[in-house]
Amino acid sequence: MSEWVTTCNERPEWLKRQAPDTEPEKWHLTIVWSGAEPERIGESVMLEEQAGNFILGRGDATAADPTERLQFVRSRPTGIVTTPPLRGGGLSRRQCRVSATRNGVTFENIGRAQLMVQGKLSNHALLRAGDLVTIQDQLILRCSRQPALPRLHYFNPKLALQFGLADSFGIVGEHHVTWELREQLAFCAAAKKHVLLLGESGSGKELAARALHRLSSRATKPMITRNAATFPASLIDAELFGNAPDYPTSGTPLRQGMIGQVDGSTLFLDELAELPLELQAHLLRVLDQGGEYQRLGDPVVRSSEFCLIGATNHDPTELRTDILGRLALQVQLPSLADRVEDIPLLVRHLLLKAADTLPDVRNRLFVDSAQGPQPRIDPLLMQALLQHRYTNNVRELEALLWKATANSPREFLELSQALRGEFVHAPPSIGPLVCGPAAAAEPTAEELTSALSRQGGNVAKTASALGLKSRYALYRLMRKHGISVEQAR
Q1: Which of these ranges, 18-32, 131-145, 235-249, has the smallest mean pLDDT?
Q2: Does residue 73 register a pLDDT over 90?
Q3: How many Å apart are CA 41 and CA 348, to the nearest integer?
Q4: Does domain 25-147 have CATH number 2.60.200.20?
Q5: 168-177, 255-264, 394-403, 427-436: which range is least confident on average?
Q6: Is residue 6 over pLDDT 60?
Q7: Which helix (H) or strand (E) is 26 found in, with range?
Q8: Hey, do 176-333 and 337-420 end up sharing a CATH topology, with the first three levels equal?
Q9: CA 443, CA 117: separation in Å to the nearest integer?
Q10: What's the fold here for domain 176-333?
Q11: Residue 416 contacts residue 404 (beta carbons within 8 Å)
Q12: CB neighbours (10 Å) of residue 299?
């Protein structure tokens, strides 16, 4: 026994170099909303445990205040890009003292803007994974615990364009599971094997299938798409494999069939598990190496060199075991719950798509920045979107944004009463938060109308004149009292 153990301890050199990964996950704080710098959503900071205190605040450290600042970055598998210090005017230079331990991230509020954790006022809190930290109308951060971003061996990083925007295939996100998805799709495309995509409804299986096809050597030919649930039981062989002329009756034209048409390309069968088990058997032979099949009424054995991409939101065990054996590679698509930090990036992407349809959306709800147009969103709405439990993922998110757009008559996307009923965890309507031992009385409807009139309807100037922290606080009060800018002019 001792001789065997001695022999086994003589490990190959490449194995000896592998350091044990005892702490693969780190605490992260990600910007999910910013009033002053909306282009910074998606930026994050990684916190080392027991590394001491850091200051979250506006600007750089100074000689008089040398405590190290939290440095937000744009992190991708290809590297890290450091971004400038936060510049929100409502942030104190020393807004929060932050530190990390194994148990969570400690926030101590030491600035003038009030702090809310999970919707509750707090000056000192221990954040857990999933908690939202709101710095009064300035910033919303989400706390998470994530592993390092994956190494890219197959996905070409040049296909992922500007940080936070859709890549060349329309996939949006900077979360580590989104990057893992890109890498898996690129690997499957290079492997030239049949693939099964698994994922919840609305998680983007068709988008992933199109990315897989475009990443493959078959990209020059069009992908053929079909919902497997629509195959008629009596005609499935004719649909798939075609028929010879004059079969089954005289005058019947030659039919090439889907398998013949897809030779040299990709066949995407959505809802594959909806195909009854006995009909799934019709695919077995053609999915074997060589892709052999026969047209109905034709004795000639033909072959089609194609890749099948199947997709289902069911348990894969609902497929025949021999079908699963031929779908050599399986990719699990992440749900929105798996990548919450991507939601603000998806919100911007979906609103830009809406703006292509409705120019008014672009003119009314967006502000220009050096990083491109950015949507103006009530922080309460963003908080609701981040905490919502989605059943249809991106499809449901898009529907909520359309409803928000339809119910936001002003120059920002708001959490209207019509929209509140859609959210199980809608944040409460709150007035402006005022620092100090006691909150000052909020302006009356008459005071609001008078102040707006004096400022010619300019919302930003009116908010400043009333001592409110931002125009969003004023908008909430106007909504509460049913006041419009037009009425006040």
Answers
A1: 18-32
A2: yes
A3: 10
A4: yes
A5: 427-436
A6: no
A7: strand 25-34
A8: no
A9: 26
A10: Rossmann fold (3.40.50)
A11: yes
A12: 7
Contact yes or no for 139/86 (Cβ under 8 A): yes
Q: Contacts by 458-463 with C-beta closer than 8 Å and gap 24+?
A: 459/411, 459/485
- Check whether 432 has a pLDDT greater than 50: no
CA–CA distances in Å: residue 163 to residues 203, 225, 285? 21, 31, 44
Q: Which of 243, 206, 202 is nearest to 223 (CA)?
A: 206
H or E element, residue 180: helix 176-191
DSSP tag of 266: E
3-state helix, strand, coil split of the chain in percent (to 5) is: 35, 20, 45
Residue 133, pLDDT > 50, answer yes
**Mean of all residue pLDDT scores within the chain:** 88
Q: Do 174 and 164 meet the contact criterion of CB atoms below 8 Å apart?
A: yes
Q: Tell me how far apart the alpha carbons of residues 472 and 470 are, in angstroms, rounded to a whole number.
A: 5
Longest CA–CA span in the chain (Å) reads 94
- Which residue reads 């400043």 in tokens? 464
Do 254 and 243 contact (CB within 8 A), yes or no?
yes
Instruction: For the chain, count helices (H), then strands (E).
Output: 18, 21
pLDDT above 70: residue 16? no
pLDDT-derived band at 334 (thresholds 50, 70, 90) equals: very high
CB neighbourhood size of 434 (10 A): 17
Give the type of residue at 280.
Answer: Q
Given the DSSP bridges, would you call strands 224-227 and 366-367 parallel, antiparallel or unpaired? unpaired
Residue 78, amino acid: T
Q: How is domain 337-420 classified at the CATH fold level? A: Helicase, Ruva Protein; domain 3 (1.10.8)
**Domain limits, the chain:** 25-147, 176-333, 337-420, 445-488
